[in-house]
Specification:
heterotrimer, A alpha+beta (about 240), B alpha+beta (about 160), C alpha/beta (about 625), A: about 240 residues, alpha+beta, Ubiquitin-like (UB roll), 2 domains, 5-stranded mixed β-sheet, 3-stranded antiparallel β-sheet, about 30% helix, C: about 625 residues, alpha/beta, Glutaredoxin, Rossmann fold, 5 domains, 4-stranded mixed β-sheet, 24 helices
Chain lengths: ~240, ~160, ~625
């Protein structure tokens, strides 16, 4: 066990855990955008920055990735931390002021109208969709392309990805609603904004839910069941 | 311009061997074709076992790669600090005007691709322009005009 | 070619290589690196060879194609040893005279001798030129002396002697202690104590470890690493093998940017030769130690100079940095402990082992030991690469070593550390150039790029220039850098275009400081430095741009106009003919006028006017 202090409180924890995990366990709230407990820490949004002092002066680090260490002094609400968060949110508002989660953060932190604006965009480049598709689903159908201000999320060649299985994970994990799964005519579905289209197959049992055949193929593969289907899957595809 | 041949790529992959580095394979393709053809990227993805999205991501991230064919001649203007304080912008302006393209773009006749480079390592010669790997130092706008004239004349004669 | 299977064989080979080299009465050395090739050095070499043949001297005189001598301003340089007669700005046409006059008869070719601008005297020996006399060339000692494509040259000059000593007489712990005691700090910019980094890597658990040489030198205006790899690649290779042994690594990578083809070529040749001689690969010098080095070429991304982005690039991914900890020495390339060091850092290692850590630490300041290599560029007479002790004053660097400012213009500022660095104004010319002193002033030593700016430089534009660079090179992963630098750049561009507003300076400072504190990696953490330091020392220029809508240096296009002075204009029409925008009108023989609406401030007219009749207001 190691001991550290967070906001003046003495805390004991097992080693190799991040500041964010430990803080949240103790009811200390640290806002995040690009963090998800099922994914590797990314450290991109910089919203979760906290001030740490390891004995050589304070600096800001991303709580989602920084490991707790013996004797670490952490402040999650100092002036330096709040000021940094305000500027980060103000910069996010440059293009995403209309996005509910960003607006909420702005209100909480007391950020007014952004001093710099760009073209509106629903995507805040948190990378959750890309990372989930790669780390959890395992198909890596989308990725971030270009660099700097041109960076965006896209399937290869900007056309519908052959690897997408329309599992909807990206839709669920996106914090801003930039990705949607819509029905289009004829029982097909598509993932916006990448226009992949699938003929969905209805579940024969309940008739309400549908799956893309590629999804069934992929999960079958993952379950290492070769070509054999479970009874429910067999029914669904019949 | 060479057209993509799958056999060419097989050759590249064989040369590089089992431990082929994605970057080196793509650099080889870029060198041969002056860009990265879609089919090449798909093949590389399959052969190296790298997701296509990652290949595409890499192809669009690094400036050494282009998705559109580059011009027959590459004119690179150094915009490194040393050249900048010696008036590199003037040279770049002149080229933009004469060629009608911006850095990163290729002229419609596919003759020239204009690029900028951040320090090409010949700071004493600044401002520097590099035409197809040949360094032209102490550039002036007059020299720019002469250079372009020479290349276009050679093109007409040789008819690439 | 002979396999050097034990220290004695290596030692014997060294004696023979030395003797062979001394067998020639005289040597003619010609620098043939990228910079000089662009000035025609290949042709000079060819003509010299022809002339030597013609005079029947080809057997007794050895013609050596060397690497970079550092004084690019005066290249190509040709030196005749042992007299050390050095000719500058040599062209192919001069080659014959050099052989028939100087080599054959001992007559000096006066037109090719360097004249010291300060004294007006001709100085024949390059060691006596103020540029070289004021330096302490330790790491650069063999640049310009040896042929980088001949391993025998390197061995004859005691190359691989340090490696032999390490493998036969020292333990890894002793080597690391040596490096620690020397006080060597990372020469890539961060200045982290090298010995400490090596120690951490050695202690990290695991059997597989890697070392990397970071040769992604991306700072515009910096070319020290290129020069070292082109001119003395073995010094880096030897350093890496020693380091690999000390840390317990078996593979090393040299990551070179693709814009350095000659460096890649010469390093490739060096690695091939080292393998042939048994100095690389299995059972090095019969010690049982296996180690090899691979080259990985970059693909055009400045951010790949950042260590975690560099490793991602080697792994075939985009160059996006990741949070640290874990540091590379704990978990780096493919998750294994990895020590990443700069080219210059590696090159210092054989010297430390051979000469002792006391020798290394005998120069420099208390916390910044040893020598540092700078590239002096911009508005300076002696453009080139220099090696000086840490702690030298900026004044000495600019005036004594650099030869001062051409046209005797006033010194305005020195930008040190490239786009991550800051500028030092005239009032701080006496600052000691070392890690701590520069940091106090808001600048950094960086990898050694030093750009001298004279009175005609617009500091606001310079800040804009650097920020544009970092903005374009930002990987885009984290918000403060991706969006923040864009916001700062937008503001600067407005200011330079004449659209600056009240509050802009305060906004730049606030935003700049937050971006520094909050960014994920070194690129974002240092990108605001040029802006913040120029505001700190040249705030009046910013104010002039914003409030008075003028550019004091008369550079920013949006704030200047080009005017023809009627009294000086004879109406020759040269400018009008050269104007691509049809902005100049006037009859032949009558003073011309420039239409400010059509004028794009490209400056062509002024550069072609033979009467100095065009002024910038």
């Amino acid at each position: 066990m190691i001991r550290l202090t967070i906001d003046g409180r003495d805390i004991e924890t097992e080693p190799d855990r991040t500041i964010l995990e430990v803080a949240r366990e103790h009811g200390i709230d640290i806002p995040t955008l690009c963090y998800h407990e099922a994914l590797e820490p990314f450290g991109a949004c910089r919203l979760c920055v906290v001030e740490v002092d390891a004995g050589r002066g304070g600096k800001l680090v991303a709580a989602c990735a920084y490991p707790c260490a013996e004797g670490l002094k952490v402040r999650t609400d100092s002036q330096a931390v709040l000021q940094s968060r305000r500027v980060t949110v103000e910069l996010l508002m440059a293009s995403a002021a209309h996005v509910p989660v960003i607006r909420r953060l702005a209100e909480e932190l007391g950020v007014g109208e952004p001093r710099f604006t760009m073209e509106a965009d629903d995507c805040i480049l948190c990378g959750l969709c890309v990372r989930a598709c790669k780390e959890i689903v395992g198909v890596a159908a989308i990725s971030v392309i270009n660099r700097g201000m041109e960076k965006k999320v896209s399937p290869p060649f900007r056309i519908a990805s052959n690897d997408c299985i329309e599992c909807g994970t990206c839709v669920l994990i996106c914090p801003t609603g930039a990705i949607t799964l819509d029905d289009i005519r004829g029982g097909a579905e598509t993932v916006h904004p990448w226009e992949s289209a699938f003929e969905a197959v209805d579940c024969r049992t309940c008739g309400h839910h549908s799956l893309a055949p590629q999804f069934i193929d992929h999960t079958t593969l993952l379950a290492e069941v070769d070509d054999a289907l479970s009874p429910i899957e067999e029914e669904a595809l019949a | 311009m060479t057209y993509f041949e799958a056999s060419d790529l097989a050759h590249v992959l064989e040369e590089q061997g089992k431990d082929a580095s994605l970057m080196h394979v793509l650099e080889d393709v870029q060198r041969r074709y002056r860009y990265l053809p879609q089919e090449a990227m798909i093949l590389v993805s399959e052969r190296l076992g790298v997701p296509l999205s990652q290949v595409y991501s890499v192809a669009t991230f690094y400036h050494a790669f282009s998705l559109l064919p580059r011009g027959l001649h590459t004119l690179q203007v150094c915009t490194g600090t040393a050249c900048h304080v010696r008036g590199a912008l003037q040279i770049l302006d002149r080229l933009e005007t004469q060629l009608g393209v911006e850095p990163g773009e290729t002229t419609r006749d596919r003759l020239f691709t204009l690029e900028t480079g951040n320090c090409l390592g010949a700071c004493a010669l600044g401002p520097v322009a590099v035409l197809d790997g040949e360094y032209e130092g102490q550039m002036t706008t007059k020299k720019v005009d002469r250079l372009l004239k020479r290349v276009m004349r050679e093109s007409e004669d040789g008819h690439d | 070619m002979i396999e050097l299977r034990d220290p004695q064989t290596l030692s014997d080979f060294r004696q023979r290589a030395k003797a062979e080299s001394e067998a020639h009465q005289r040597h003619i050395r010609v620098c043939n690196s990228t910079g000089c090739r662009a000035l025609g050095s290949q042709k000079v070499l060819a003509r010299l060879q022809e002339a030597l043949q013609a005079e029947g001297l080809a057997d007794e005189i050895e013609l050596v194609s060397t690497g970079c001598r550092g004084l690019c301003e005066l290249g190509p340089l040709v030196t005749i040893d042992p007299e050390r007669i050095t000719y500058s700005r040599v062209s192919a046409a001069d080659a014959t005279a050099i052989v028939t006059d100087t080599v054959a008869q001992g007559k000096i070719v006066d037109s090719l001798v360097y004249v010291d601008p300060a004294t007006g005297q001709a100085v024949t020996r390059d060691h006596d030129w103020p540029f070289y006399a004021s330096q302490m060339r330790r790491v650069l000692a063999l640049n310009g002396e040896i042929d980088p494509t001949r391993i025998e040259d390197y061995i004859a000059r005691d190359g691989y002697m340090a490696l032999s000593k390490v493998l036969s007489e020292m333990t890894p712990e002793q080597v690391i202690e040596d490096v620690k005691q020397s006080g060597l700090r990372g020469r890539g910019g961060a200045g982290f104590p090298t010995g400490v980094k090596w120690d951490l890597c050695r202690r990290a658990p695991g059997d597989v470890k890697y070392i990397i040489c970071n040769a992604d030198e991306g700072d515009p205006g910096a070319f020290m690493d290129r020069s070292l790899l082109e001119s003395n690649p073995h010094s880096v290779v030897e350093g890496m093998i020693i380091g690999g042994h000390a840390m317990g690594a078996t593979r090393g990578f040299v990551y070179i940017r693709n814009e350095y083809p000659l460096a890649v070529e010469n390093l490739s040749i060096a690695l091939g030769q080292a393998r042939e001689y048994g100095l690389l690969g299995e059972d090095i010098i019969g010690s049982g130690f296996d180690f090899d080095v691979e080259i990985r070429v970059g693909s055009g991304a400045f951010v790949c100079g950042e260590e975690t982005a560099l490793m991602a690039s080697i792994e075939g991914k985009i160059g996006e940095p990741r949070p640290r900890p874990p540091y590379p020495v704990e978990s780096g390339l493919w998750g294994k402990p990895t020590s990443i060091n700069n080219v210059k850092t590696w090159a210092n290692v054989p010297l430390i082992v051979r000469n002792g850590h006391d020798w290394f630490a005998s120069v420099g300041t208390e916390k910044s030991k040893g020598t540092m290599i700078f590239s002096l560029v911009g508005n300076i007479r002696n453009t080139g690469l220099v090696e000086v002790p840490m702690g030298i004053s900026l004044r000495e660097l600019v005036y004594d070593v650099g030869g001062g400012i051409p046209g005797d213009k006033a010194f305005k500022a020195a930008q040190i550390g490239g786009p991550s660095g800051g500028c030092i104004p005239a009032e701080h010319l006496d600052v000691a150039v070392d890690y701590e002193s520069l940091t106090e002033l808001g600048a950094i030593v960086g990898s050694g790029g030093l750009v001298v700016c004279d009175e005609d430089t617009c500091m606001v534009d310079l800040a804009r220039y650097f920020l544009k660079f970092t903005q374009e090179e930002s990987c885009g992963k984290c918000v403060p850098c991706r969006v923040g630098t864009r916001a700062m750049l937008d503001t600067l561009e407005r200011i330079c275009a004449g659209d600056g507003r009240e509050g802009d300076i305060e906004y730049l400072i606030e935003l700049g400081e937050e971006i520094k504190r909050s960014s994920l990696c070194g690129l974002g953490q240092t990108a605001p430095n040029p802006v913040l330091t120029t505001i700190r020392y040249f705030r009046d220029e910013y104010e002039a741009h914003i409030h008075d809508k003028t550019c004091p240096a008369r550079y920013c296009k949006g704030l200047i106009t080009y005017e023809i002075i009627p009294d000086l204009c004879p109406g020759c029409m040269v400018c009008a003919r050269n104007c691509a925008f049809g902005a100049i009108s006037g009859e032949k023989g009558e003073p011309h006028t420039i239409d400010p609406e059509a004028c794009t401030r490209c400056g062509v007219c002024k550069s072609v006017c033979n009467f100095d009749a065009i002024a910038i207001r």
